[in-house]
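Sanity check

After download, print the first record. It should look like this:
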Amino acid sequence: MLTDYPELVEFLPCASPDEWINWALENEATLLTDHAHCEKKAASTAMSLMYRYVDRENLLHKMSRLAREELLHFEQVLKIMRNRGIQYEHMTAARYADGLRKHIRTHEPARLVDTLIIGAFVEARSCERFAALVPHLDDELAKFYQSLLKSEARHFKDYLTLAEEYAGHPIDDRVQFFRDLEHQLIIEPDEEFRMHSGPPKAA
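Expected structure tokens:
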């Protein structure tokens, strides 16, 4: 499935561990609940960028579209949860996003560039995980996650393109910095399952 997105595969440092996939299949309610939270957070991040960087026309255009799509995905996940009798409730966040964002530089335009690079990793990893889960899911969920691949891959590309545009210089070194961090966050074990968690800690 990801063969249609070679740039995305090359961008990520690794595939999701099989242990995470098995963990996800054992925790469908948590998977869907956290997925809903992720879609809502993604929309919020896009809106936050629109409010902070009002003079960046290309960013405003791409983030407006992204926010609308993420909120639609949020509504779609909620519908699936409702049909399955799963209650949408508060969840603690995975260490994944914070593990990346705590390294954002504080001066501009470096702050914006780092935020956009992290956005690219979050969207790329989401796409990769949807694709990894599809072969193992029931027909409804498999069809839904398959339908998300194209938009998530485009969101990854939008974030990366914007980061390159606003940096004013090559960003390969900074991308590699966050790639190394992302690799560790994906392969290191976690105590709680989340959409972006690592594999489960051994009992």
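If your output differs, re-run the checksum step. Summary of this record's structure: Residues 17 and 61 are 35 Å apart (CA to CA).
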